[in-house]
Amino acid sequence: MKYLMLFCETEQWEKDWEAMDEAEREAATGRVMAWLREHSDRITHNAKLAAPETATTIRLGGGEPVVTDGPFVEGKEVVSGYVEVDVPDLDEALRMARGWPGCPLVEIRPIAF
């Protein structure tokens, strides 16, 4: 079964990241890379997304679509990356996500075909 794990940063996580020195950031990035290597046999695709301010949003409904620069999605969390995994079941996806060493939120969604 395929799932998408969305990695979400919070405002506090971003503040903590900014407060780290270069060595701490490199160590944190190393932990993420190790997690990706550990699960590489189940990861079918992964990517880090560009910063939220690079987003373009299209609001649909209520007439003509409105296109704006920026994410402008309601909420305090920002999706910063994802992995697509091919695992036997949700329990395995949850086991993988529990070990995620990066940002503090992981949303797991089944991929519908």
What does this structure look like?
There is one protein chain. The protein has 113 residues and is α+β, with helices and mostly antiparallel strands. 31% of the residues lie in helices and 33% in strands. It has a 4-stranded antiparallel sheet with strand order 2-5-1-6. The mean pLDDT is 90.
Q: Keywords, please?
A:
single chain, 113 residues, alpha+beta, 4-stranded antiparallel β-sheet, two-stranded antiparallel sheet, 3 helices, flat, YciI family protein, YCII
Distance between the terminal alpha carbons, to the nearest Å? 11 Å
Structural class label:
alpha+beta
Query: What is the helix tally?
Result: 3
Helix content: 25-40%
The tally of strands reads: 6
Task: Give the ordered list of helices and strands.
Answer: EHHEEEEHE
Strand content: 25-35%
Low-confidence stretches: none
The major beta sheet can be summarized as: 4 strands, antiparallel
Average predicted local confidence, pLDDT: 90
The main sheet orders its strands as 2-5-1-6
| Rg, alpha carbons | 16 Å
Backbone shape: flat
Protein name: YciI family protein
Family: Belongs to the YciI family.
InterPro entries: Dimeric_a/b-barrel, YCII
Organism: Amycolatopsis dongchuanensis
